[in-house]
């Protein structure tokens, strides 16, 4: 396997105040292993862990890193940026921790077509659901793996358990993708993702090759045109089993049947496998998003790209600085007080004769502030940073305190208007985030209203409307 490339450590000149003194920062750049894809092909899997530089490992040996900013990009081997109309970043995740824990996580995620192991039940996702019982406590499908309030936290906990360790590990991403290439992720002063004894980084990349080869001139994208592959269409090669709720023999998570009552009443096609047209459930690792009966894909050239990480952390130990730890929570417009949601939905085209400026598809829902379905959970937390996640066609997504009507954050889509990477015309190249130097405090069982708006001059399927927030638990 090709060794990951490591770029020069860059000492930053900024100064962040912790609780006791001014801390300097360091920024490092890392490259993933090469990702090789042909036209229409999907990469949606974990890579082997990438070692952090020796001096970084030594600096935090038996200590805690405060990760305060990050950026993910797609580049060629020569370092130049890859335009989204050639390779699209559907989403990414990366975890950071000890080498042993990251190796354990990587091993645990093998043979997972969507990048994570799928449990059997819906306990913790849909109100009142129970997982099937099992005598085999080690059976992956019967672990309460993804059913906890923080899915990825449960995965990392399992990895730490297998590694016989219990350190804090950081997870970033989850639903974040191309739209966050130009989105700042800087956390407000005094907050960070904390990593105990950081030694390695375990990444997942969901990339799609959208660059038609020269042999297919009729499929070359015109300037300003985005690829239909962004929506992960279900091709004739996908085996959809309506009775078992599986795609190609795999049960996706969340499975079909997790939309809110509102979306069922609207008969939204993404809520049911019988009417499903496409989305992440047809975007398994290795799939092609073209009808391969009509192409000889082996004749397509293989493009090689890399995931690039730019990570900024404080030089001093986070515990000594008194830095507050943040973790991720999410809110989904397809969710409710009864379900965490379906993750994706379809946007129908507006009626004929509607003025273009009036072609807006708006949906809203109410969820508990902690993103769960319990409603009886005690405790308080604050949100120092939040940002929306939308697909092409998205206008904005807003988060309200449902009891007061106060707007907490409106995150707006930023569209490119050129051809250069990070400014691709008609692609979402950024989302406006919300920072809070004095973060708002909420009870876990407070209620948020999420309002999503899409332009529907043309239909879209498999889109998402999520709020991705960082939270900090407040001690009782």
What does this structure look like?
By secondary structure, the protein is mainly β. Strands 1, 2, 3, 6, 9, 13 and 14 form a seven-stranded mixed β-sheet that branches. The radius of gyration is 22 Å and the shape is globular. It has helices at residues 54-59, 99-108, 151-162, 261-265, 318-321; strands at 10-17, 22-31, 35-37, 42-46, 50-51, 64-75, 87-97, 170-173, 191-196, 200-209, 240-241, 246-247, 303-314, 324-325, 327-332, 345-347, 360-368, 380-390, 394-401, 407-415, 428-431, 434-435, 441-443, 447-455, 460-463, 465-474. Strand 11 (240-241) and strand 12 (246-247) form a beta hairpin. Helix 2 (99-108) packs across helix 3. 8% of the residues lie in helices and 35% in strands. The longest helix has 12 residues, at 151-162. It contains five helices and 26 strands.
List keywords for this structure.
mainly beta, globular, five-stranded antiparallel sheet, seven-stranded mixed sheet, 8% helix, single chain, 476 residues, disordered N terminus, 26 strands
Which strand-content bin applies to the residues?
Answer: 35-45%
Number of strands: 26
The average pLDDT score comes to 86
The DSSP helix count reads 5
Overall structural class, as computed from helix and strand content, comes to mainly beta
Topology:
Elements: E1 10-17, E2 22-31, E3 35-37, E4 42-46, E5 50-51, H1 54-59, E6 64-75, E7 87-97, H2 99-108, H3 151-162, E8 170-173, E9 191-196, E10 200-209, E11 240-241, E12 246-247, H4 261-265, E13 303-314, H5 318-321, E14 324-325, E15 327-332, E16 345-347, E17 360-368, E18 380-390, E19 394-401, E20 407-415, E21 428-431, E22 434-435, E23 441-443, E24 447-455, E25 460-463, E26 465-474
Parallel strand pairs: 9-14
Antiparallel strand pairs: 1-2, 2-13, 3-13, 4-10, 5-10, 6-9, 6-13, 7-8, 7-10, 11-12, 15-26, 16-25, 17-24, 18-22, 18-23, 18-26, 19-20, 19-24, 20-21
Helix pairs in contact: 2-3
């Amino acid at each position: 396997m090709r060794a990951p490339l490591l770029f020069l450590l860059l000492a930053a000149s900024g100064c962040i105040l912790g609780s006791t003194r001014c801390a300097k920062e360091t920024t490092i750049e890392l490259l993933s292993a090469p990702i090789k894809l042909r036209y229409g092909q999907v990469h949606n899997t974990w890579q082997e862990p990438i070692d952090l530089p020796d001096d970084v490992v030594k600096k935090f040996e038996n200590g805690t890193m405060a990760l305060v900013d990050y950026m993910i990009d797609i580049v060629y081997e020569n370092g130049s940026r890859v335009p989204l109309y050639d390779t699209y970043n559907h989403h990414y995740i990366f975890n950071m921790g000890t080498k042993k824990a990251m190796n354990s996580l990587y091993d645990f995620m093998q043979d997972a077509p969507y990048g994570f192991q799928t449990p059997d039940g819906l306990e913790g996702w849909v109100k009142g659901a129970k997982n099937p019982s099992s005598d085999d406590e080690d059976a992956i499908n019967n672990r309460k793996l993804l059913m906890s309030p923080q899915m990825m936290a449960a995965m990392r906990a399992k990895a730490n358990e297998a590694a016989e360790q219990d350190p804090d590990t950081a997870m970033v991403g989850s639903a974040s993708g191309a739209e966050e290439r130009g989105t700042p992720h800087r956390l407000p002063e005094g907050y960070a993702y904390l990593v105990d004894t950081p030694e390695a980084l375990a990444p997942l990349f969901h990339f799609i090759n959208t660059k038609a080869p020269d042999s297919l001139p009729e499929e070359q994208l015109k300037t300003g045109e985005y690829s239909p592959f962004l929506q992960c269409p279900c091709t004739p090669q996908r085996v959809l089993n309506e009775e078992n709720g599986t795609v190609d023999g795999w049960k996706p998570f969340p499975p079909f049947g997790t939309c809110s009552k509102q979306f069922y009443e609207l008969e939204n096609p993404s809520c049911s496998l019988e009417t499903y047209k496409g989305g992440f459930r047809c975007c398994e690792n290795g799939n092609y998003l073209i009808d391969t009966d009509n192409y000889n894909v082996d004749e397509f050239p293989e493009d090689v790209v890399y995931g690039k990480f730019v990570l900024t952390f404080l030089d001093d130990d986070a515990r000594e600085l008194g830095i507050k730890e943040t973790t991720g929570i999410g809110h989904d417009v397809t969710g409710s007080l009864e379900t965490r949601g379906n993750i994706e939905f379809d946007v129908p085209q507006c009626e004929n004769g509607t003025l273009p400026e009036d072609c807006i598809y708006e949906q809203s829902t109410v969820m508990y502030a902690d993103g769960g379905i319990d409603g009886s959970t005690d405790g308080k937390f604050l949100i120092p940073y939040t940002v929306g996640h939308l697909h092409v066609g998205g206008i904005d997504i807003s988060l309200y305190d449902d009891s007061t009507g106060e707007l907490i954050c409106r995150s707006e889509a930023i569209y490119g208007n050129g051809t250069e990477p990070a400014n691709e015309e008609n692609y979402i190249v950024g989302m406006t985030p919300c920072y809070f130097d004095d973060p708002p405090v909420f009870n876990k069982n407070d209620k948020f209203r999420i309002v999503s708006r899409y332009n529907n001059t043309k239909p879209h399927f498999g889109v998402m409307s999520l709020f991705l927030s960082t939270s900090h638990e407040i001690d009782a």
